[in-house]
From TrEMBL:
<dbReference type="InterPro" id="IPR047218">
    <property type="entry name" value="YocR/YhdH-like"/>
</dbReference>
<keyword id="KW-1133">Transmembrane helix</keyword>
<keyword id="KW-0813">Transport</keyword>
<feature type="transmembrane region" description="Helical">
    <location>
        <begin position="179"/>
        <end position="200"/>
    </location>
</feature>
<keyword id="KW-0812">Transmembrane</keyword>
<keyword id="KW-0472">Membrane</keyword>
<feature type="transmembrane region" description="Helical">
    <location>
        <begin position="220"/>
        <end position="244"/>
    </location>
</feature>
<dbReference type="InterPro" id="IPR000175">
    <property type="entry name" value="Na/ntran_symport"/>
</dbReference>
<feature type="transmembrane region" description="Helical">
    <location>
        <begin position="47"/>
        <end position="69"/>
    </location>
</feature>
<feature type="transmembrane region" description="Helical">
    <location>
        <begin position="256"/>
        <end position="282"/>
    </location>
</feature>
<dbReference type="GO" id="GO:0016020">
    <property type="term" value="C:membrane"/>
</dbReference>
<feature type="transmembrane region" description="Helical">
    <location>
        <begin position="384"/>
        <end position="404"/>
    </location>
</feature>
<dbReference type="InterPro" id="IPR037272">
    <property type="entry name" value="SNS_sf"/>
</dbReference>
<dbReference type="Pfam" id="PF00209">
    <property type="entry name" value="SNF"/>
</dbReference>
<feature type="transmembrane region" description="Helical">
    <location>
        <begin position="307"/>
        <end position="334"/>
    </location>
</feature>
<feature type="transmembrane region" description="Helical">
    <location>
        <begin position="425"/>
        <end position="451"/>
    </location>
</feature>
<feature type="transmembrane region" description="Helical">
    <location>
        <begin position="152"/>
        <end position="172"/>
    </location>
</feature>
Length: 451
């Protein structure tokens, strides 16, 4: 903890800590679980290409905007807008983000629960096999068992509560900065092993040779939603982390590094999964089950596979927790800084709310599977409402806020560290993209995808 004399707020204590924590927010199940399955569901390389464009033209500029807004106001995601635009309704951006956080946490914590369960299954070794039906049964058995799904999810939420109680720098930095490089290294190994499977090239073609016939409005919206989700945008996570950034941190450079690293992790996850999918005859469009059904089969082909599979699920669990910390930080900061509720109490109130909300997702494939809206169960509905609706809307409003209230001068001053960085030409270009290209793209894709 390195609170400056001027404020009693906690903050990240070093440049590397800032980067690690921000990366810790971005890299998580979005990369390892969601990216592969959405790419698989939406036809592979064409989807990937659109996703790349969305990351570059929407994700990166918005990440710079959110972090710098947070650092300029140094308060919670609702307070940021009350401080920078007092007496206006712009704070609704923060409130919408809060709603997204609750929806995301509901299904995210359920999936982290599955990851925890797979740590256990890896230790016992029963899933170290290339037998497809056994792997499918194992996953199906877990998600359709209400007690198991709930129990693992609640354990995850309890753990997150404990970590948050320890505060920003000690809790978040300590965990994420040590484990990220390990995860990276292991993914390289798994990808290499997957590429060595006979027939692996089919998977590489799927990932890199675009088939544009699969692209329609819905696919565009999914790619946009994934860009928001993976970079933790449109919910307030980057804004609140930005509020803990050091004054001398180079925000645009940090955002670029985070984006590139996040992309690399996703590509490695894709390279670990798709070669195996095609080599071993799995279905690339098997949805949320994809990671859990395929990755054990890759480990079954590797030397030391048993041990490495345990390490893989443990590291995935840590990456997911790093991301969850940045989600939970949003309600906690709002309760603490808006409503003056003591941090520890705010944390446990949030965890309690999430146990309730999360149970709806955890039970969506068993007890609550009959609860459907628009053909989606609760799990899919929460995902749809957050990444395909609320997050893009919040992103759009953020662009408008920068355009209409903060204006070029405010944006450039904040991101050049008040002129210390001499990068104003570049920043003016980013401002133009952020306030013209980004909002137009979000609006077009949303209208096209929803109507
Ligand atoms: N970016 C995280 C991941 O990819 C998820 C996340 C979304 C975190 C939104 C914070 C806010 O796993």
């Amino acid at each position: 903890m390195s609170s400056s004399p001027a404020s009693a707020r906690d903050g990240f204590s070093s440049g590397f800590g800032v980067l690690a924590a921000t990366l810790g927010s971005a890299v998580g199940l979005g990369n390892i679980w969601m990216f592969p399955y959405q790419t698989g569901n939406n036809g592979g390389a064409g989807f990937l290409l659109i996703y790349l464009l969305a990351t570059l033209l929407v994700g990166l500029p918005l990440m710079i905007a959110e972090i710098s807004l947070g650092r300029s106001a140094r308060t919670d995601p609702v307070g940021v807008y009350r401080k920078l635009a007092p007496g206006t309704l712009w704070w609704i951006i923060g409130a919408l983000g809060l709603v997204s956080v609750l929806l995301i946490m509901s299904f995210y914590s359920a999936v982290v629960g599955w990851v925890f369960a797979y740590v256990g299954k890896s230790v016992s070794g029963g899933i170290l096999t290339q037998d497809r039906s056994l792997l499918e049964q194992t996953f199906g058995g877990l998600v359709s068992n209400p007690a198991a799904a709930l129990g693992w999810q609640w354990l995850v939420l309890l753990l997150v509560g404990i970590i948050i109680t320890f505060g920003v720098s000690r809790g978040i930095e300590a965990v994420t900065k040590r484990l990220m490089p390990l995860l990276f290294g292991l993914l390289v190994l798994v990808a290499l092993a997957a590429l060595m499977l006979p027939g692996a090239m089919e998977g590489v073609r799927f990932l890199f040779l675009p088939d544009f016939s699969r692209i329609d409005g819905q696919v565009l919206l999914k790619a946009l939603g994934l860009a928001f989700f993976k970079l933790s945008l449109g919910v307030g996570s980057m804004t609140i982390y930005g509020s803990y950034f050091r004054q001398q941190q180079n925000i645009p450079r940090t955002a670029l590094t985070v984006m590139l690293a996040d992309l690399t992790v996703s590509m490695l996850a894709g390279l670990a999964i798709f070669p195996a999918v095609f080599a071993l005859g799995f279905n690339p469009a098997s949805g949320p089950a994809l990671l859990f059904q395929t990755i054990p089969a890759v480990f079954a082909s590797m030397p030391l596979g048993h041990l490495l599979m345990i390490v893989f699920f443990v590291l995935t669990a840590f990456a997911a927790i790093g991301a969850m910390l940045s989600l939970v930080e949003v309600p906690v900061a709002i309760l603490h800084e808006r409503l003056r509720i003591e941090r520890a109490r705010a944390t446990w109130l949030t965890v309690l709310a999430l146990v309730g909300l999360g149970s709806l997702s955890a039970l969506s494939s068993s007890t609550l599977s009959h609860v459907q809206l628009g053909g989606m169960n609760l799990f899919d509905l929460f995902d749809f409402l957050s990444s395909k609706l609320l997050m893009p809307i919040t992103g759009l409003l953020t662009c408008l806020f920068v355009l209409l209230r903060w204006k070029q001068a405010g944006f450039v001053a904040a991101n050049s560290n008040e002129g210390a960085l001499h990068n104003t030409g570049l920043l003016r270009a980013v401002f133009t993209i952020l306030t013209k290209v980004t909002p137009l793209l979000i609006l077009t894709v949303m209208l096209y995808g929803l109507l």
